[in-house]
Queue: 3 jobs
Job 1
Amino acid sequence: MQVDVILGLQWGDEGKGKIVDYLADKYDIIARFQGGPNAGHTLVIDGKKHVLHTVPSGIFREGKINYIGNGVVIDPITLMKEIDTLEKEGVPVKERMIISKRANLILPTHKILDAASESSKGSSKIGSTLKGIGPTYMDKTGRNGLRIGDILEEDFIVKYELLKNKHLQLLQIYNHSFELEPMEEEWMNAVERLKEYRQVESVYFINESLKKGKRILAEGAQGSMLDIDFGTYPFVTSSNTISAAVCTGLGISPKHIGEVIGITKAYCTRVGSGPFPTELDNEVGEKLRKEGGEFGATTGRPRRCGWIDLPALNYACLINGVTKIIITKADILNAFDEFGVTTHYKYDNKETKDLPYDMVNKVIKPTTIFFKSWGNIEHDQPLKEELKNYIDYLEKYLNIPVAMVSNGPGREQLIDLTEGKLLA
Ligand code: GDP
Ligand code: IMO
Ligand code: MG
């Protein structure tokens, strides 16, 4: 069997959660492979909104396994809060969720270090979600990290104290005040509760599942332009967010990767600092934010808004080997008579589709063409000509088929352009 992948092609918040929840019905296992509680994935089921941070977006589907892979970083406090909310809503999380022993733990001092590092950067701060992501991945690659499997070991507290003390020494270089004890107490209580959840040795779990014919859907967090290697560095997150990370974040061979489904909004947003060539820092951007409800699902921060950026989208498709595109928030463009599509960048006296090496310091002028909007999308009607034209243009530009168009936050607000042939 193969592993299909859903991931974001922009700077996050493309609507991945909604699409994963919808498609989860066709799979046996829904697996997160990277990132952590910096993610905020919104699902709207029967008019009720749910926001997930660490738990995969298949959790509302009966009979599915939701797997948190080794590539994910876990904060027991956030995870337990999320579980409590879900259980209050009647979702049997213990039955449906499994965690890799190899997933790294976010300690309270990782969160403090994140905040200290950000505030020391002043105006050049990354705009981190302050969930401790960067410091935790630093400890992982620095070979100092604590992992989920460690919480069941006898020497867990010894290991914890060792790492905590290292962090306390590090914190001395910052002028940052903090109160560790209450956070630590809450964290230890959450760790105690986490012991009751199923842990597995990743490699055997996932490969034996594949051998048994289980269908797996990998759920990306963040977006390709936030990738640690290929994003707008240093304004990125600390994990690889692209399809290659599915292999390292779950423990599978590349030969098992099937469809790579890339999600893009019909326009573009970014939250936090960093380059955003198509940003509309004016009343048009303001209107996109208002109509699209563009406020962060994790931090509530207003998202920066602009027109869709095809050079960046093309770049993201190349890195990921995208086989199908899904466009979300098509309904939001109804608020405009016409909307922009950036086709090229101008910099260094040339017009090009290629992204420059240094997106931060290069002055990029976007070349933008305009398309007519399509009005309301009716599910039982043939596709409007204007929408068809836009889809045709995107498919030709990217040389990848558009499989679905999402026209509302609700689970069923989707138009399938492949007549159910999206999945292999
Ligand atoms: P994710 O991080 O990629 O899962 O996306 P977020 O949940 O952070 O942000 C996407 C937002 O758009 C959420 O509020 C969704 O409920 C909403 N959304 C998703 N698809 C659509 C759509 O097609 N139309 C509208 N209007 N909202 C959508
Ligand atoms: P989902 O999965 C949008 C951004 C932050 C910041 C940068 C680094 O919901 O799409 P970090 O906390 O990772 O150190 O922050 O990355 N960022 C996201 N932006 N959606 C996300 O996740 C994000 N996760 C991190 O705003 O600019
Ligand atoms: Mg989000």
Job 2
Amino acid sequence: MTDDSSIKNQEERIVSALTKEGEVIADVSVRPRQLSEYIGQHRVKDNLVISIQAALQRAEPLDHTLIYGPPGLGKTTMAHILATEMGVSIKSTSGPAIERAGDMVALLTQLRKFDVLFIDEIHRLPRIVEEILYPAMEDFFVSWVVDKGLKARSMNLSIQPFTLVGATTRYGMVSAPLRDRFGSVHRLDFYDEQSMHTIVSRSAKILNIDASEEGSAEIARRSRGTPRIANRLLRRTRDYAQVVTKSGINHDVALAALNKLAVDNIGLDDIDRQVLNCIILKFGGGPVGLDTVAASINEESDTIEDVYEPFLLQLGFLERTPRGRVATPRAYEHLGIEYDKFKQKNMF
Ligand code: ADE
């Protein structure tokens, strides 16, 4: 749990951040900076505490760490926390941002002893770049080829021992050789309601938002177990309270604001409902291919797969089958469609 002094520190950071760049920086500032401030994900935290202590005691870098799970659950936050807890600097980049082997060599050779190199969306690293990482991760040296044809030479350079922290929403798309080189792998799960409530209350306190327990609880309940969504809904509810009701955030205000944002009582938004309605109403409940669903609601397949489906799967509203996506009776019930009647009508 957060104590008052760390809240005070956070507040000071936010005030200076706000004067610089407004809400974008403030958004970053509600993130926990230390493991002790990080709410939920107990299994992951417990294991990390041990790894960090062990590495510090041995005066070694932390083992390379892969963190995976749906977007918005705190993978990037965790990478920054790991660096803070180890007392080292962090350099951040992402898979699609590194196109050439030379870019990766440049990054690796700039690292200082025990630094964290954070690569978001690590599953999107080009293969040629990934291959630079293998000896770097295993033996702390880089090896690359300069020139072409007869003049081609291989260059080897040792680098400082470092920790690679990789994050991905697609564990299955991280290549086996890369996956195997991580000493620890952690999966972040959707947060339970109690943790979400604590996260919303903590953010409200840091951002100086007047929110009652019931108001915070309603925002937490509708945030689909995802802190990033909770923090966003908290801010939008603050806007509503400021402009429409000119009050603090109590339960009624939270309900009204969230209804206006078309976030329903279990946190589904317009796109979630479009996905389910499309599968049920256009394709008789499925099975239907992801690309077909995506085309018919005008969304990217990857966005549906990475951002929307994980929560619908977790709710048990959707099944992935070899023949495509299928909506479950629970999804029909949530949308107010009678499953048996619908199925009878749609049989041919
Ligand atoms: N803000 C976003 N994620 C958080 C977490 N897990 N704990 C505390 N605050 C958060």
Job 3
Amino acid sequence: MRAAITATGHYLPPDVYPNAYFERQLDTTDAWIRSRTGIAERRFASAGGTSDLIVPAARRCLDARGISPAAVDCIIVATMTPDRLCPSTAAVVQRKLGAIHAWGFDLAAACSGFVYGLIVATKLIESGAARRVLLSGADRMSSVVNPEDRATAVLFGDGAGTVLIEPVEDESVGILDYVCHMNGEGESSLYIPAGGSVEPASAASVGEKRHYVVQDGPAVYKAAVIGMAEVTEEILKRNDMTAADLAWLVPHQANRRIIEAVAKRLGLGLDRVIINLDRYGNTVAATIPIALSEWNERGRFAHGDRVVLSAFGAGFTAGSVFLRWATV
Ligand code: UT7
């Protein structure tokens, strides 16, 4: 049995923060942000949790497929900004959506979370354990980014993308293969020091702002170019393809220069690479499903299109999925 993405939806909060906003707040410039990252603006939610980003994205996805939340049997939420450490955001989404027959869980793999989640969802479908999996990649990064730290504040945004994964009869389309890597040596390059079990939240941890994301940008940059290129090259090779066979590469959207470097290494023209980080910044687990949903809603995917999704993020984690688009 083959699993395929049969519907998509996304949600971005309405409040837009252009680079000029940070020019007023921090020692930075629009020119620096654009030239070093490719980002022009991002969205921040004014209230609510990650579940409040997911629910409208999920409704849009289910409406596109014409099914009710009660028809979903599993909910997976890939996020590094859960509503709370307990219970899972998947449980909150289940209640808010009214997906009364669904079980589910959160998956923590930062920027690679959606790709990892897609693999888990595929295996649930292929094994017959689930018939309709609702997978969201979503992050409210504004809840964990220090607004006074110019090295991170300008990079991230809030958003959610959701896909529905179902079995399809046609074996020639759907989710065909994957490659995943992880290197825990990356922990100190991108992490949140406090608020977990190692350093529980305290007045001191909050006072020292240790509940915010810390990133060694240049170290992550170097690892991301190599890591994302490696998983993408590996998945192409395993499937006897070259970049020329791809209709679309959907890379994680952290930095336009990372995407360009990966495309160059693959010999892939940017006209076949989906890029939207200029408008949304790095929405972490949400970047790939938002891109998929935008392209799908614009009718840019044709049945059978060869598509590779590639991600790299904290951990370090990296992953690629090869699929052939299924129009159902
Ligand atoms: O999605 C998860 C994975 N995350 C990523 O993939 C992010 C990877 N890293 C990056 O995207 C890039 O490293 C950054 C965009 C964060 C930085 O770009 P860079 O080319 O690596 O940095 P750079 O070497 O051009 O510049 C570093 C300098 C530092 O100043 P000094 O020490 O050279 O004087 C920073 O203090 O840029 C400074 N800087 C800024 N300057 C103006 C850092 N942030 C800013 C800023 N505005 N917002």
